[in-house]
Amino acid sequence: MRRLVAFLIALPVFIFAGTNVFLDLSYENGFKWTGELYGNVWLDEDWRFNYRAGVGRGFGIVHTGIIDELKNFVEFYYFPETNLSGKIGPFELKAGILNEERGPGIDKLFLDDNSRFYGFPGFSLKYTQNNWHVESLWLRINDKKSFNYRTVVFDLGLLKIAYEDAVVYLNEVFNPYYFLVPIPTIAIQEIWQYQEGSPWRDPLENANALMGGWVEFSFGAGKIYFEALIDDMSLNRLLGTGDYLNPDKIALLLGGEYRTGLWRFYGEVSGASAYTFERTSSNVPYEYTYFSEGAIEDRMIGYRYGENSFSLKLGLERTFGWYSLGVMYHYLVYGDRTPEEPWHGEEMPPDTKWLIGELTKEHTVKLSLNAFFGEYGGNVDVWWNSLDGLGLEVRFEVGF
Asked: Could you name the domain of life of the organism this protein comes from (predicted)?
């Protein structure tokens, strides 16, 4: 008991002794600043306490995906991460407030870090053995919705192959079957939610399961990767039975990069069919999003641009010692993106749909200059974006 009390008293000292502080000043369509404390405290050789918290102020800042329309100059506080992580033999554990992403590439399909200022209660369990590992992750999104993600990754040297699945479910805080049972979540969903006559079936509970995976191949100075996500897999399509085949709801990603000398080239193409991630019944009040309000790009759990979209990114970077230059082109096109409206308020279609409704197209060119302070910590970024104009970011970082 005395040791516990002593540890709790000394914890603030340990935290600030291992703290890094950064101040971020930026301008793009308005001035804003954020200040953040982050770092970790090693409790012993296997366990550590991680934390990140900040404060910000600026014009039109997006806070947890929701724009404060009552104030032009918004002040906000955020706690994206506070957790404990460590190892017990081949197991790695992490628990607390988490802000996670998984998968290859720039824009992840299953789980992306689209909620910059906000973390979620959760925990993960990872088991590693030789050249493969399996991980199960749980997040509590809000008081009605929880999320599970699982993956098995095989590392074969130059080639990596992974299986992924995820499920969003209603009116349950934590379902141990989604976390622990080693079969695809789509099968658990069918058994747990829809098996006729089962005494555990609860009509108030509902779930949306997704499955897929990724591959990555490295070759010397470069790599290529591919990822696929399938939402509501049509079993009758796989089995070839029945007169009606459910429309496929899928998302795909293909990309890569190549480095030669001081040059880096990269590119990525991605997209999702219409209705991917959205609910398909009017009596199911949830969708594959962190928040119910705000821009799609700020609230998706998975693919940043949501359903019914296509994205192409091409970039080039050149390093010159203490500074670097970069140019990126981004083409984005999307149609109706309403994950809260099943089938966009219409009847279920007889086939798969891509880029439907009124289309919006965006061509963006970004030129950037990044200068490093080296031993002093921090950097300066200056950029020009064809959509938003000139931007500037100055970042200072100090460790204690």
From this structure: Bacteria
